[in-house]
Amino acid sequence: MLLSQCARSQPISSTPVSGPIQFQTYKSEGGLLSLDLEAKAQSVQLGDRTANLLAYNGTVPGPLLEAKPGDKVQIRFTNQLDQPTNIHHHGLHIPPTGSGDNVFLEISPGKSHTYEYQIPDTHPAGTFWYHPHKHGLVAEQLFGGLAGLFIVRGELDEIPEVKAAKEEFLVLKDFALDSNGNISDTGHMAAMTGRAGGLLTASGQVNPAMTISKGGLLRLRLLNASPSRFFRLSLEDHPLHLIATDGGAISSPAELSEVVLAPGERAEVLVQGSQKPGEYRLLNQPFNPAQGGMMGGMMGGNQSSGRSETVATLTYEGSTEEIPLPTQLIAIEPLPEPQTTRQFTLNHGMGGGGMMMGGGMVFMINDKAYDPSRIDTQVMLNTVEDWEITNTGSMAHPFHVHTNKFQIISQNGQPVPYPAWKDVVSVSPGETVCIRMAFRDYTGKTVYHCHVLDHEDRGMMGTLEIQQA
Predict the structure, then answer these.
(1) How many C-beta neighbours within 10 Å does residue 469 have?
(2) pLDDT (tens digit, 9 = 90+) per residue, 139-155?
(3) pTM for the full model?
(4) Residue 19 and residue 52: Cα distance in Å, rounded?
(5) Which residues contact 205 (CB under 8 A, 6 or more apart)?
(6) How far is CA 279 from the centre of its chain?
(7) One domain for residues 41 and 123
(8) What domain range is 87 assigned to?
(9) Whole-number pLDDT of residue 185
Protein backbone atom coordinates (compact mmCIF):
# COMPACT_ATOMS: atom_id res chain seq x y z
CA MET A 1 0.00 0.00 0.00
CA LEU A 2 1.36 3.38 -0.99
CA LEU A 3 1.75 6.17 1.55
CA SER A 4 2.32 9.68 0.22
CA GLN A 5 0.83 13.14 0.11
CA CYS A 6 -1.90 13.69 -2.48
CA ALA A 7 -1.26 16.19 -5.22
CA ARG A 8 -4.12 18.69 -5.42
CA SER A 9 -2.76 20.79 -8.31
CA GLN A 10 -3.86 18.49 -11.15
CA PRO A 11 -6.80 19.51 -13.35
CA ILE A 12 -9.79 17.40 -12.35
CA SER A 13 -12.24 15.74 -14.70
CA SER A 14 -15.64 15.80 -13.03
CA THR A 15 -19.25 15.07 -13.89
CA PRO A 16 -22.50 15.95 -12.13
CA VAL A 17 -23.19 13.84 -9.07
CA SER A 18 -25.55 10.94 -9.78
CA GLY A 19 -27.79 9.06 -7.36
CA PRO A 20 -26.81 6.79 -4.48
CA ILE A 21 -25.24 3.38 -5.09
CA GLN A 22 -27.68 0.48 -5.31
CA PHE A 23 -27.22 -3.25 -5.75
CA GLN A 24 -29.34 -6.29 -6.46
CA THR A 25 -28.44 -8.26 -3.31
CA TYR A 26 -28.71 -11.92 -2.30
CA LYS A 27 -28.04 -12.86 1.33
CA SER A 28 -27.76 -16.29 2.87
CA GLU A 29 -30.71 -17.47 4.95
CA GLY A 30 -30.62 -20.40 7.36
CA GLY A 31 -27.07 -21.24 6.36
CA LEU A 32 -27.77 -21.27 2.60
CA LEU A 33 -27.00 -18.75 -0.14
CA SER A 34 -29.03 -19.87 -3.15
CA LEU A 35 -29.60 -17.97 -6.39
CA ASP A 36 -29.91 -18.16 -10.14
CA LEU A 37 -27.23 -16.27 -12.06
CA GLU A 38 -27.25 -15.61 -15.80
CA ALA A 39 -24.58 -14.07 -18.03
CA LYS A 40 -26.08 -12.33 -21.06
CA ALA A 41 -25.54 -9.44 -23.46
CA GLN A 42 -27.62 -6.60 -22.09
CA SER A 43 -28.42 -2.91 -22.55
CA VAL A 44 -27.29 -1.11 -19.38
CA GLN A 45 -27.35 2.53 -18.31
CA LEU A 46 -23.93 3.96 -17.40
CA GLY A 47 -24.40 7.57 -16.32
CA ASP A 48 -26.08 9.29 -19.25
CA ARG A 49 -24.95 6.59 -21.71
CA THR A 50 -26.86 3.53 -22.82
CA ALA A 51 -24.26 0.80 -23.14
CA ASN A 52 -24.49 -2.63 -24.76
CA LEU A 53 -22.54 -4.74 -22.31
CA LEU A 54 -22.26 -8.22 -20.80
CA ALA A 55 -24.15 -8.48 -17.52
CA TYR A 56 -24.92 -10.85 -14.68
CA ASN A 57 -28.71 -10.86 -14.09
CA GLY A 58 -29.05 -7.72 -16.19
CA THR A 59 -26.93 -5.47 -13.96
CA VAL A 60 -23.39 -4.04 -14.09
CA PRO A 61 -21.87 -4.84 -11.70
CA GLY A 62 -23.66 -8.11 -11.03
CA PRO A 63 -25.61 -8.96 -7.88
CA LEU A 64 -23.95 -8.45 -4.52
CA LEU A 65 -23.75 -11.81 -2.74
CA GLU A 66 -23.48 -12.08 1.05
CA ALA A 67 -22.73 -15.17 3.12
CA LYS A 68 -21.18 -16.16 6.45
CA PRO A 69 -18.55 -18.70 7.45
CA GLY A 70 -20.08 -22.17 7.44
CA ASP A 71 -22.76 -21.31 4.89
CA LYS A 72 -23.51 -23.51 1.90
CA VAL A 73 -23.54 -21.78 -1.50
CA GLN A 74 -25.59 -22.83 -4.54
CA ILE A 75 -25.28 -20.72 -7.68
CA ARG A 76 -27.31 -22.07 -10.60
CA PHE A 77 -25.44 -20.45 -13.46
CA THR A 78 -26.63 -20.20 -17.08
CA ASN A 79 -24.44 -18.99 -19.94
CA GLN A 80 -26.48 -16.93 -22.43
CA LEU A 81 -23.37 -15.45 -24.06
CA ASP A 82 -22.27 -16.41 -27.57
CA GLN A 83 -18.96 -17.82 -26.27
CA PRO A 84 -17.94 -20.21 -23.48
CA THR A 85 -17.41 -18.88 -19.97
CA ASN A 86 -17.20 -19.94 -16.32
CA ILE A 87 -16.96 -18.28 -12.88
CA HIS A 88 -13.95 -17.68 -10.65
CA HIS A 89 -14.76 -17.06 -6.99
CA HIS A 90 -11.86 -14.67 -6.48
CA GLY A 91 -10.29 -14.77 -3.00
CA LEU A 92 -12.59 -17.39 -1.49
CA HIS A 93 -10.85 -20.30 0.24
CA ILE A 94 -12.97 -23.09 -1.24
CA PRO A 95 -12.20 -26.27 -3.23
CA PRO A 96 -10.60 -25.55 -6.63
CA THR A 97 -12.12 -28.70 -8.10
CA GLY A 98 -15.55 -30.12 -8.97
CA SER A 99 -18.30 -27.54 -8.50
CA GLY A 100 -16.17 -25.20 -6.40
CA ASP A 101 -13.74 -22.60 -7.74
CA ASN A 102 -12.95 -24.71 -10.79
CA VAL A 103 -11.51 -22.44 -13.49
CA PHE A 104 -10.93 -25.42 -15.80
CA LEU A 105 -14.68 -25.78 -16.35
CA GLU A 106 -15.99 -24.64 -19.72
CA ILE A 107 -19.69 -23.76 -19.82
CA SER A 108 -20.79 -23.59 -23.46
CA PRO A 109 -23.34 -21.08 -24.80
CA GLY A 110 -26.84 -22.03 -23.73
CA LYS A 111 -25.59 -24.46 -21.08
CA SER A 112 -25.93 -24.34 -17.28
CA HIS A 113 -23.85 -25.42 -14.31
CA THR A 114 -24.53 -25.37 -10.57
CA TYR A 115 -21.66 -24.14 -8.42
CA GLU A 116 -22.04 -25.72 -5.01
CA TYR A 117 -19.63 -25.49 -2.08
CA GLN A 118 -19.41 -24.71 1.61
CA ILE A 119 -17.57 -21.73 3.03
CA PRO A 120 -15.30 -23.00 5.83
CA ASP A 121 -16.29 -22.23 9.42
CA THR A 122 -12.90 -20.56 9.83
CA HIS A 123 -13.18 -18.37 6.71
CA PRO A 124 -12.27 -14.72 7.41
CA ALA A 125 -14.71 -11.90 6.83
CA GLY A 126 -13.79 -9.90 3.77
CA THR A 127 -14.47 -8.38 0.37
CA PHE A 128 -14.24 -10.99 -2.37
CA TRP A 129 -15.65 -11.11 -5.90
CA TYR A 130 -16.62 -13.26 -8.87
CA HIS A 131 -15.80 -12.92 -12.55
CA PRO A 132 -15.23 -15.06 -15.69
CA HIS A 133 -12.06 -17.14 -15.98
CA LYS A 134 -12.24 -18.96 -19.34
CA HIS A 135 -8.64 -18.70 -20.54
CA GLY A 136 -8.33 -16.59 -23.68
CA LEU A 137 -11.61 -14.75 -23.04
CA VAL A 138 -11.10 -13.40 -19.51
CA ALA A 139 -10.12 -9.82 -20.39
CA GLU A 140 -12.82 -9.51 -23.04
CA GLN A 141 -15.62 -10.75 -20.78
CA LEU A 142 -14.56 -8.73 -17.73
CA PHE A 143 -14.10 -5.60 -19.86
CA GLY A 144 -17.61 -6.24 -21.18
CA GLY A 145 -19.05 -5.91 -17.67
CA LEU A 146 -19.05 -9.34 -16.00
CA ALA A 147 -18.07 -8.89 -12.34
CA GLY A 148 -19.79 -8.91 -8.96
CA LEU A 149 -19.01 -8.65 -5.24
CA PHE A 150 -19.04 -11.59 -2.84
CA ILE A 151 -19.06 -10.44 0.81
CA VAL A 152 -18.30 -12.79 3.70
CA ARG A 153 -19.62 -11.40 6.99
CA GLY A 154 -17.82 -12.36 10.17
CA GLU A 155 -15.65 -11.26 13.05
CA LEU A 156 -14.51 -7.96 11.53
CA ASP A 157 -18.11 -6.86 11.04
CA GLU A 158 -18.84 -7.33 14.75
CA ILE A 159 -16.17 -4.93 16.01
CA PRO A 160 -18.36 -2.17 17.53
CA GLU A 161 -16.84 0.79 15.66
CA VAL A 162 -16.88 -1.09 12.34
CA LYS A 163 -20.45 -2.24 12.95
CA ALA A 164 -21.52 1.37 13.65
CA ALA A 165 -20.04 2.64 10.37
CA LYS A 166 -22.19 3.28 7.33
CA GLU A 167 -21.14 1.02 4.47
CA GLU A 168 -20.65 1.66 0.75
CA PHE A 169 -19.44 -0.78 -1.91
CA LEU A 170 -17.42 0.69 -4.77
CA VAL A 171 -16.76 -1.60 -7.73
CA LEU A 172 -14.28 0.41 -9.80
CA LYS A 173 -14.46 -0.30 -13.51
CA ASP A 174 -13.61 1.43 -16.77
CA PHE A 175 -15.37 1.04 -20.12
CA ALA A 176 -14.64 1.95 -23.73
CA LEU A 177 -17.78 2.67 -25.74
CA ASP A 178 -18.25 3.75 -29.33
CA SER A 179 -20.89 6.26 -30.48
CA ASN A 180 -23.54 3.51 -30.54
CA GLY A 181 -22.84 2.39 -26.97
CA ASN A 182 -21.07 -0.78 -28.06
CA ILE A 183 -17.81 -1.96 -26.51
CA SER A 184 -15.00 -0.37 -28.51
CA ASP A 185 -12.08 -2.20 -30.01
CA THR A 186 -9.29 -0.70 -27.91
CA GLY A 187 -6.68 -1.52 -30.50
CA HIS A 188 -3.75 -3.86 -31.05
CA MET A 189 -1.46 -2.25 -28.48
CA ALA A 190 -4.14 -2.55 -25.79
CA ALA A 191 -3.81 -6.31 -26.08
CA MET A 192 -0.18 -5.84 -25.05
CA THR A 193 -0.42 -3.23 -22.31
CA GLY A 194 -3.93 -4.25 -21.25
CA ARG A 195 -7.22 -2.82 -22.49
CA ALA A 196 -8.57 0.31 -20.79
CA GLY A 197 -11.42 2.74 -21.39
CA GLY A 198 -12.13 6.40 -20.78
CA LEU A 199 -15.49 5.96 -19.03
CA LEU A 200 -14.80 5.49 -15.32
CA THR A 201 -17.59 4.02 -13.19
CA ALA A 202 -18.11 3.19 -9.53
CA SER A 203 -20.63 0.37 -9.00
CA GLY A 204 -22.15 1.02 -12.42
CA GLN A 205 -22.59 4.77 -11.92
CA VAL A 206 -20.65 7.84 -12.97
CA ASN A 207 -19.74 9.92 -9.91
CA PRO A 208 -22.28 8.39 -7.49
CA ALA A 209 -23.34 10.20 -4.32
CA MET A 210 -22.30 9.01 -0.86
CA THR A 211 -23.15 10.53 2.52
CA ILE A 212 -21.57 10.65 5.94
CA SER A 213 -22.80 12.03 9.27
CA LYS A 214 -20.77 14.64 11.12
CA GLY A 215 -19.03 12.58 13.82
CA GLY A 216 -19.82 9.29 12.07
CA LEU A 217 -17.77 6.69 10.22
CA LEU A 218 -18.04 5.55 6.62
CA ARG A 219 -16.73 2.13 5.60
CA LEU A 220 -15.70 2.03 1.96
CA ARG A 221 -15.22 -1.39 0.42
CA LEU A 222 -13.11 -0.88 -2.69
CA LEU A 223 -12.69 -3.38 -5.54
CA ASN A 224 -10.66 -2.80 -8.68
CA ALA A 225 -12.68 -4.84 -11.20
CA SER A 226 -10.91 -3.43 -14.26
CA PRO A 227 -8.94 -5.80 -16.49
CA SER A 228 -5.84 -3.59 -16.57
CA ARG A 229 -6.33 -0.13 -15.05
CA PHE A 230 -4.68 0.78 -11.75
CA PHE A 231 -6.40 3.17 -9.34
CA ARG A 232 -4.71 5.70 -7.07
CA LEU A 233 -7.47 6.90 -4.76
CA SER A 234 -7.63 9.78 -2.30
CA LEU A 235 -10.51 11.61 -0.61
CA GLU A 236 -10.29 15.38 -0.38
CA ASP A 237 -9.36 16.56 3.14
CA HIS A 238 -9.91 13.09 4.64
CA PRO A 239 -7.29 10.44 5.46
CA LEU A 240 -8.19 6.86 4.67
CA HIS A 241 -7.89 4.40 7.55
CA LEU A 242 -7.13 0.97 6.12
CA ILE A 243 -8.83 -1.89 8.00
CA ALA A 244 -8.70 -4.79 5.50
CA THR A 245 -6.94 -5.94 2.34
CA ASP A 246 -7.67 -8.76 -0.14
CA GLY A 247 -7.76 -11.55 2.41
CA GLY A 248 -9.49 -9.76 5.28
CA ALA A 249 -8.71 -7.56 8.27
CA ILE A 250 -5.32 -6.26 9.32
CA SER A 251 -4.27 -6.07 12.99
CA SER A 252 -5.01 -2.36 13.54
CA PRO A 253 -6.05 0.58 11.35
CA ALA A 254 -3.31 2.14 9.19
CA GLU A 255 -3.73 5.80 8.21
CA LEU A 256 -3.06 6.45 4.53
CA SER A 257 -3.29 9.54 2.38
CA GLU A 258 -4.06 7.40 -0.67
CA VAL A 259 -4.69 3.82 -1.71
CA VAL A 260 -3.31 2.27 -4.89
CA LEU A 261 -5.22 -0.75 -6.22
CA ALA A 262 -3.94 -3.01 -8.97
CA PRO A 263 -6.46 -5.01 -11.01
CA GLY A 264 -8.17 -7.56 -8.77
CA GLU A 265 -7.11 -5.95 -5.48
CA ARG A 266 -9.51 -4.94 -2.71
CA ALA A 267 -9.20 -2.65 0.29
CA GLU A 268 -11.54 -1.59 3.07
CA VAL A 269 -11.06 1.85 4.61
CA LEU A 270 -12.81 3.88 7.29
CA VAL A 271 -13.47 7.60 6.77
CA GLN A 272 -14.15 9.86 9.76
CA GLY A 273 -16.82 12.54 9.47
CA SER A 274 -14.53 15.18 10.95
CA GLN A 275 -14.64 18.01 8.38
CA LYS A 276 -16.95 20.92 7.71
CA PRO A 277 -20.19 20.07 5.89
CA GLY A 278 -19.76 20.21 2.14
CA GLU A 279 -18.87 18.07 -0.86
CA TYR A 280 -15.64 16.09 -0.96
CA ARG A 281 -14.47 14.20 -4.03
CA LEU A 282 -13.04 10.71 -4.06
CA LEU A 283 -10.35 11.17 -6.69
CA ASN A 284 -8.43 8.86 -8.97
CA GLN A 285 -5.04 10.51 -9.38
CA PRO A 286 -2.65 10.11 -12.35
CA PHE A 287 -0.35 7.20 -11.71
CA ASN A 288 2.60 5.55 -13.41
CA PRO A 289 2.36 1.95 -12.19
CA ALA A 290 5.85 1.09 -13.47
CA GLN A 291 7.20 3.18 -10.58
CA GLY A 292 5.82 0.62 -8.11
CA GLY A 293 4.40 0.90 -4.63
CA MET A 294 3.22 -2.01 -2.51
CA MET A 295 -0.13 -2.11 -4.27
CA GLY A 296 0.89 -0.38 -7.48
CA GLY A 297 2.55 -1.24 -10.75
CA MET A 298 2.02 -1.31 -14.58
CA MET A 299 3.18 0.52 -17.62
CA GLY A 300 1.90 4.05 -18.19
CA GLY A 301 0.34 4.53 -21.62
CA ASN A 302 -3.40 3.93 -21.61
CA GLN A 303 -3.40 3.08 -17.90
CA SER A 304 -3.63 6.73 -16.80
CA SER A 305 -5.62 9.59 -18.26
CA GLY A 306 -2.98 12.10 -17.14
CA ARG A 307 -5.51 14.00 -15.05
CA SER A 308 -7.37 13.51 -11.80
CA GLU A 309 -10.85 12.04 -12.17
CA THR A 310 -13.79 12.16 -9.78
CA VAL A 311 -14.82 8.64 -8.79
CA ALA A 312 -17.59 9.54 -6.30
CA THR A 313 -18.69 12.51 -4.20
CA LEU A 314 -19.12 12.45 -0.42
CA THR A 315 -21.58 14.85 1.23
CA TYR A 316 -22.20 15.46 4.94
CA GLU A 317 -25.75 14.71 6.06
CA GLY A 318 -26.83 15.21 9.67
CA SER A 319 -24.70 14.55 12.71
CA THR A 320 -24.22 11.86 15.32
CA GLU A 321 -22.32 11.31 18.53
CA GLU A 322 -18.69 10.94 17.53
CA ILE A 323 -17.70 7.36 16.75
CA PRO A 324 -13.99 6.70 17.36
CA LEU A 325 -11.80 4.59 15.14
CA PRO A 326 -11.22 1.05 16.39
CA THR A 327 -7.81 0.55 17.95
CA GLN A 328 -7.56 -3.20 17.34
CA LEU A 329 -8.96 -5.32 14.52
CA ILE A 330 -8.05 -8.97 13.88
CA ALA A 331 -4.57 -10.19 14.85
CA ILE A 332 -2.50 -11.59 11.98
CA GLU A 333 -0.32 -14.53 12.93
CA PRO A 334 2.87 -14.66 10.84
CA LEU A 335 3.17 -17.84 8.81
CA PRO A 336 5.91 -20.24 9.97
CA GLU A 337 9.22 -20.54 8.17
CA PRO A 338 8.91 -22.12 4.72
CA GLN A 339 9.93 -25.65 3.80
CA THR A 340 10.65 -24.59 0.22
CA THR A 341 11.55 -21.40 -1.69
CA ARG A 342 10.68 -21.11 -5.38
CA GLN A 343 11.57 -18.51 -8.00
CA PHE A 344 9.17 -17.13 -10.62
CA THR A 345 10.29 -14.76 -13.38
CA LEU A 346 7.72 -12.63 -15.23
CA ASN A 347 8.52 -11.38 -18.73
CA HIS A 348 7.23 -11.12 -22.29
CA GLY A 349 8.43 -11.73 -25.83
CA MET A 350 7.26 -12.05 -29.41
CA GLY A 351 5.02 -14.89 -30.48
CA GLY A 352 5.45 -16.96 -33.62
CA GLY A 353 5.33 -14.82 -36.77
CA GLY A 354 6.14 -11.61 -34.90
CA MET A 355 3.81 -8.73 -34.05
CA MET A 356 3.34 -7.63 -37.65
CA MET A 357 2.59 -11.20 -38.76
CA GLY A 358 -0.16 -11.66 -36.20
CA GLY A 359 1.90 -13.52 -33.62
CA GLY A 360 1.69 -10.66 -31.13
CA MET A 361 3.18 -10.43 -27.67
CA VAL A 362 3.45 -13.53 -25.51
CA PHE A 363 3.60 -13.17 -21.73
CA MET A 364 5.46 -15.81 -19.76
CA ILE A 365 6.28 -17.15 -16.31
CA ASN A 366 9.75 -18.73 -16.10
CA ASP A 367 10.08 -18.33 -19.89
CA LYS A 368 7.00 -20.47 -20.56
CA ALA A 369 3.61 -19.40 -21.86
CA TYR A 370 0.58 -21.13 -20.36
CA ASP A 371 -0.15 -24.66 -21.55
CA PRO A 372 -3.31 -26.25 -20.08
CA SER A 373 -1.83 -29.72 -20.50
CA ARG A 374 1.20 -28.89 -18.33
CA ILE A 375 1.57 -28.87 -14.53
CA ASP A 376 3.94 -26.00 -13.77
CA THR A 377 4.24 -26.20 -9.99
CA GLN A 378 3.56 -29.08 -7.62
CA VAL A 379 3.24 -28.44 -3.89
CA MET A 380 2.30 -30.55 -0.90
CA LEU A 381 -0.75 -30.00 1.27
CA ASN A 382 -0.04 -28.59 4.75
CA THR A 383 3.33 -27.12 3.76
CA VAL A 384 4.52 -23.50 3.71
CA GLU A 385 6.49 -22.03 0.80
CA ASP A 386 8.14 -18.75 -0.11
CA TRP A 387 7.71 -17.62 -3.70
CA GLU A 388 10.18 -15.03 -4.99
CA ILE A 389 8.56 -13.26 -7.93
CA THR A 390 10.90 -11.21 -10.13
CA ASN A 391 9.75 -8.97 -12.97
CA THR A 392 12.43 -8.73 -15.67
CA GLY A 393 10.11 -7.07 -18.20
CA SER A 394 9.03 -3.48 -18.86
CA MET A 395 5.44 -3.69 -17.57
CA ALA A 396 4.17 -4.28 -14.05
CA HIS A 397 2.31 -7.51 -13.32
CA PRO A 398 -0.20 -7.98 -10.46
CA PHE A 399 0.47 -11.58 -9.42
CA HIS A 400 -2.61 -13.52 -8.23
CA VAL A 401 -2.77 -16.99 -6.65
CA HIS A 402 -6.03 -18.93 -6.46
CA THR A 403 -7.35 -20.93 -3.45
CA ASN A 404 -4.81 -19.91 -0.76
CA LYS A 405 -4.01 -16.37 0.36
CA PHE A 406 -0.48 -15.25 1.22
CA GLN A 407 1.55 -12.80 3.27
CA ILE A 408 3.98 -10.41 1.56
CA ILE A 409 7.35 -10.89 3.23
CA SER A 410 9.51 -8.37 1.38
CA GLN A 411 9.77 -6.06 -1.60
CA ASN A 412 13.29 -5.82 -3.09
CA GLY A 413 14.60 -7.25 0.15
CA GLN A 414 12.85 -4.66 2.32
CA PRO A 415 10.18 -5.82 4.79
CA VAL A 416 6.63 -4.56 4.21
CA PRO A 417 5.25 -1.85 6.56
CA TYR A 418 2.57 -4.03 8.17
CA PRO A 419 1.39 -7.66 7.88
CA ALA A 420 -1.65 -8.33 5.72
CA TRP A 421 -3.40 -11.22 3.98
CA LYS A 422 -3.32 -10.82 0.21
CA ASP A 423 -4.16 -12.71 -2.97
CA VAL A 424 -2.83 -10.11 -5.46
CA VAL A 425 0.53 -8.35 -5.30
CA SER A 426 1.82 -6.03 -8.01
CA VAL A 427 5.41 -6.55 -9.14
CA SER A 428 6.94 -3.57 -10.93
CA PRO A 429 9.68 -3.80 -13.60
CA GLY A 430 13.01 -4.72 -12.03
CA GLU A 431 11.37 -5.65 -8.74
CA THR A 432 11.42 -8.85 -6.68
CA VAL A 433 8.58 -9.52 -4.23
CA CYS A 434 8.65 -12.43 -1.80
CA ILE A 435 5.34 -13.93 -0.68
CA ARG A 436 4.75 -16.70 1.89
CA MET A 437 1.89 -19.11 1.48
CA ALA A 438 0.45 -22.09 3.38
CA PHE A 439 -1.36 -24.73 1.30
CA ARG A 440 -4.30 -25.71 3.45
CA ASP A 441 -7.46 -27.84 3.31
CA TYR A 442 -7.75 -28.53 -0.42
CA THR A 443 -5.94 -30.63 -3.00
CA GLY A 444 -6.27 -30.45 -6.76
CA LYS A 445 -5.34 -28.21 -9.67
CA THR A 446 -5.66 -24.44 -9.70
CA VAL A 447 -3.71 -21.53 -11.23
CA TYR A 448 -1.58 -18.45 -10.58
CA HIS A 449 -1.34 -15.62 -13.09
CA CYS A 450 -0.99 -11.94 -13.89
CA HIS A 451 -4.21 -10.02 -13.18
CA VAL A 452 -3.70 -7.66 -16.08
CA LEU A 453 -6.03 -10.03 -17.83
CA ASP A 454 -4.78 -9.53 -21.38
CA HIS A 455 -1.41 -10.71 -20.06
CA GLU A 456 -3.05 -13.79 -18.52
CA ASP A 457 -4.95 -14.52 -21.74
CA ARG A 458 -1.65 -14.21 -23.65
CA GLY A 459 0.18 -16.75 -21.55
CA MET A 460 1.18 -15.33 -18.15
CA MET A 461 -0.40 -18.12 -16.14
CA GLY A 462 0.73 -21.39 -14.62
CA THR A 463 -1.04 -24.49 -13.33
CA LEU A 464 -0.54 -25.26 -9.65
CA GLU A 465 -1.21 -28.78 -8.36
CA ILE A 466 -1.68 -29.23 -4.61
CA GLN A 467 -1.00 -32.85 -3.68
CA GLN A 468 -1.86 -34.89 -0.61
CA ALA A 469 1.21 -35.36 1.56
Answers:
(1) 8
(2) 999 999 999 999 999 99
(3) 0.93
(4) 21
(5) 18, 19, 21, 46, 47
(6) 28
(7) yes
(8) 25-153
(9) 83
